[in-house]
């Protein structure tokens, strides 16, 4: 449809009439949102969590108060809406200008991260230069850029303007559906419930997130800066954006099936991630499913040449496939998108993206782990054959 329209009116006309337009008001609102989230991150009471040893041998502390920030933000949203001070559909109605503002910030932040990495790095030895300007911009140079000692760019950007915004956008589009059509469908509620479970879970387990690829291995460039500020809130919430304008009423049977599949996917995702986290925290001295955890002891070297030991779990879920946590995530993603029906491809973007992202992640991670652990990783792969789906891949 869009393609036909583009051919009819020509590309300049097409973009002039359809491209999102900036708005000073929305840009200021977006700026206020960033400052508000930064203030919550900095000043709300917080547990101090410890990350994982970096390749240069740094062990960083993090403020993990995301759950409280999520509650304060949403309580304000609902409170102000209930008192009539805020139109709950505000984000939906101002979506265009907010999206442009988020993009501007995403690009600016990428530039700031690039310059900071050169002129004022937080941990010099944890920088990675590829030799290519574009690659460094895209994948980042610094591993853990910070303002001062504790304002961590990565944890803040991914969690606060990114993940907190996700459910806020959902709730706003639910309100928008109501304002447009006078009712709220079970499909938009299912998508919102599944998103909320995922988001609240993320913040309950924010400490766990410190031991995932995003924090431990990915450097901070466009991929994480723009990805967390724009791609994450805009694309992950596409289902509710779509359903607000194109309501879908699911039969009770379909609604129940989607909810059960989604919650099962989430349960698998959480249980798998919990097992790895538990084993790493207890250094293997724990039980999984009533039996002592089985681990492989492996060795690796940090950049300073020192040798370290680590463990790879090969029992419980992790004895079935090397990335079985991704399977749970995929079940959840497909359930969320299926709530939108099969009329359009657009709301399926999230599930398609997650499939590509997670398969690509497997390849990336396997290559990195193989370099890091050498023979230890080979032994692990022989012991745990499957990648994501036992018996299939
Ligand atoms: P993992 O949490 O699985 O972390 C992978 C790392 O864990 C490896 O690099 C390795 O790091 C270590 N590891 C690998 N195998 C083992 C093992 N057998 N025992 C112990 N440690 C092991 O991956 P991700 O960070 O990609 O994902 C975490 C979760 O987040 C997943 O459930 C995923 O689905 C989800 N996710 C969601 C996204 C979204 O946008 N919704 C995006 C990306 C992920 P080390 O060097 O420490 O050994």
UniProtKB/TrEMBL annotation:
Positions in coiled-coil regions: none
Pfam families, A to Z: ERG4_ERG24 (PF01222)
Top EC class of this enzyme: oxidoreductase
InterPro entries: ERG24_DHCR-like, Sterol_reductase_CS
EC number of this enzyme: 1.3.1.21
TM stretches of this protein: 67-86, 98-117, 180-200, 220-238, 250-269, 345-363
Location relative to the cell: Endoplasmic reticulum membrane
Secretion signal span: none
Topology within the bilayer: Multi-pass membrane protein
Gene Ontology molecular function terms on file: 7-dehydrocholesterol reductase activity
Keyword set includes Membrane: yes
Reactions the enzyme catalyzes: cholesterol + NADP(+) = 7-dehydrocholesterol + NADPH + H(+); 7-dehydrodesmosterol + NADPH + H(+) = desmosterol + NADP(+)
Taxonomy, superkingdom: Eukaryota
Family indicated by similarity: Belongs to the ERG4/ERG24 family.
Protein's name in the database: 7-dehydrocholesterol reductase
């Amino acid at each position: 449809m869009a393609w036909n329209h583009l051919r009819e009116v020509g590309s300049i006309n097409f973009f002039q009439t359809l491209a999102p337009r900036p708005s000073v008001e929305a840009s200021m609102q977006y700026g206020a949102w960033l400052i508000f989230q930064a203030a919550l991150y900095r000043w709300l009471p917080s547990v101090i969590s410890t990350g994982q040893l970096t390749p240069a041998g740094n062990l960083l502390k993090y403020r993990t108060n995301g759950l409280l920030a999520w509650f304060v933000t949403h309580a304000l949203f609902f409170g102000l809406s209930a008192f009539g001070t805020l139109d709950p559909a505000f984000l939906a109605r101002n979506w265009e200008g907010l999206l442009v503002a988020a993009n501007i910030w995403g690009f600016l932040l990428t530039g700031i991260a690039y310059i900071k990495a050169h002129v004022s790095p937080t941990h010099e030895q944890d920088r990675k230069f590829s030799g290519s300007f574009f690659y460094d911009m895209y994948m980042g140079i610094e591993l853990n850029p910070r303002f001062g000692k504790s304002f961590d760019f990565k944890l803040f950007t991914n969690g606060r303007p990114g993940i907190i915004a996700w459910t806020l956008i959902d709730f706003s589009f639910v309100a928008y559906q109501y304002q447009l059509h006078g009712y709220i469908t079970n499909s938009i509620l299912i998508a919102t419930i599944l998103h909320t479970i995922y988001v609240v879970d993320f913040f309950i387990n924010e400490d766990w997130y410190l031991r995932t690829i995003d924090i431990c291995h990915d450097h901070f460039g466009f991929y994480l800066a723009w990805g967390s500020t724009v791609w994450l809130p805009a694309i992950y919430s596409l289902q509710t954006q779509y359903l607000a304008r194109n309501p879908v009423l699911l039969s009770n049977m379909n609604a129940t099936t989607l909810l059960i599949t989604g919650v099962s996917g989430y349960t698998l995702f959480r249980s798998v991630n919990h097992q790895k986290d538990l084993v790493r925290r207890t250094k293997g001295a724990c039980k999984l499913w009533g039996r002592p955890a089985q681990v492989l002891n492996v060795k690796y070297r940090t950049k300073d040449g020192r040798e370290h030991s680590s463990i790879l779990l090969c029992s419980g879920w992790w004895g079935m496939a090397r990335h079985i946590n991704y399977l749970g995530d995929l079940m959840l993603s497909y359930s969320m998108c299926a709530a939108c029906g099969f009329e359009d491809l657009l709301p399926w973007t999230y599930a398609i993206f997650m499939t590509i992202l997670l398969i690509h992640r497997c390849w990336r991670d396997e290559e990195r782990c193989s370099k890091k652990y050498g023979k230890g990783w080979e032994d692990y792969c022989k012991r745990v054959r499957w990648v994501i789906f036992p018996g299939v891949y």
